[in-house]
Amino acid sequence: MSSLQDLTAKVVAFRDAREWKQFHNPKDCALSLVLEAGELLEIFQWKNGDEIDATAVARRQDVADELADIFNWLLLIAHDQGIDLAQALTDKIAVNDRKYPADKAKGTSRKYTEL
Amino acid sequence: MSSLQDLTAKVVAFRDAREWKQFHNPKDCALSLVLEAGELLEIFQWKNGDEIDATAVARRQDVADELADIFNWLLLIAHDQGIDLAQALTDKIAVNDRKYPADKAKGTSRKYTEL
Amino acid sequence: MSSLQDLTAKVVAFRDAREWKQFHNPKDCALSLVLEAGELLEIFQWKNGDEIDATAVARRQDVADELADIFNWLLLIAHDQGIDLAQALTDKIAVNDRKYPADKAKGTSRKYTEL
Amino acid sequence: MSSLQDLTAKVVAFRDAREWKQFHNPKDCALSLVLEAGELLEIFQWKNGDEIDATAVARRQDVADELADIFNWLLLIAHDQGIDLAQALTDKIAVNDRKYPADKAKGTSRKYTEL
């Protein structure tokens, strides 16, 4: 089993072996995350309706690769900024729980400002 | 301690309580991840040199919030597509280890195609 | 009628009156363009099938505003780098005309590498 | 000289010769614009300080190509939605002129909400 701590240790070790920390300011790391997220989205470009799920299945390995690239930057940025990702997510869920009360938000994709 | 499994269970439970699975096709989830990644990058817009790290410190809570939003989509997409994020990341590190051999890639930000 | 030259003169005059040229390095201008493009895409988040065109109609003013923001950065970057946008587009169309021959590309959304 | 009308006619003719209008819903066009904007930003990934302008010069043709790709989608979306780009930009400048009064915004990169 891999904890966030173990995975973070792996990506940091990979980076340190290449002495890449010197390039990893948070702006360029965020920029890199944006570009990888774009590569994930590109998989679904021009796909609509039933093609969307079919594409996710047909290109499952590509999806996994892009998710991994995004996860890599997420772990590195969190590590560099001393942010506990699990805690940040748990806190955010608590905030969203108030913004999107289950009874009001049920079955609608509207923004909290329109509930 | 929170494992990826625990965190995934939390974001899925949040979604299920709102019956939002019906909206969560992988294209719109990827699109949402791109938009959240953009919000992270926006924190560093117009910041350069020493301002970059100073901004990361001054807006640490905003950075944590955006990382959490990105993590949320990452976990949901992986869950929906039956992708083991920890395995995907470990596999990707192995691939990158061959693309960027530590001795050749040390101290350079060049792409593997230019090493 | 407004030529690209006239419109460029307008956005440059707006910038100069605020002495913002000092912030406009091409990296941050490109970053700003990415963020504005994200705002355009956000209009269509969670919209699928017939909702897509309906949303474009219902939020036509928002679409126009985002296109204007993108156009603003496009004109500024081209101006700052001494790039003739009309020529760049004409050149690109010529390149794409060879990459996507009309007889092979007709009616398919495949990439040129798959034609 | 090329007006926006002439350039729009060119990109629409290119599309029509390939019968691609059927794929060009505004969501996928906006998505494509986001991806092209990402390719522009990628040129400046890991570049900082003096390297930013030096990169813009060294890769001027790449910058021109990406601006052309972005411009292509901008013109197509505006055309499809019946939006006059020149008017939209002029209107937006008028709005920004009120949001960022020259005397208050001079020499600062702050958002209008912080002026």
Explain what the structure shows.
Chain A has 115 residues and is an all-alpha fold. Chain A has 2 domains: 4-83, MazG-like (Helix Hairpins), CATH 1.10.287.1080; 84-115, no CATH class. Helices cover 70% and strands 0% of the residues of chain A. In chain A, helix 1 (4-17) packs across helix 4 and helix 2 (26-42) packs antiparallel against helix 4 (60-80). The relative contact order of chain A is 0.11. The mean pLDDT of chain A is 95. Chains in contact: A-B, A-C, A-D, B-C, B-D, C-D.
Question: For the largest interface in this structure, which chains are involved and how many residues does each contribute?
Answer: C-D, 66 and 67 residues
**What is the H-and-E element order of chain A?**
HHHHHH
Kindly provide the radius of gyration of chain A, computed on alpha-carbon positions and rounded to a whole number of angstroms: 18 Å
Number of DSSP helices of chain A? Answer: 6
Proper CATH architecture of the largest domain in chain A: Orthogonal Bundle
Oligomerization state of this entry? Answer: homotetramer
Helix content of chain A: 55-70%
The average pLDDT of chain A is 95
CATH top level label of the largest domain in chain A: Mainly Alpha
- In CATH terms, the superfamily of the largest domain in chain A is MazG-like
Query: What shape does the CA trace of chain A take?
Result: globular
What is the number of strand segments of chain A?
0
Query: What is the structural class of chain A?
Result: mainly alpha
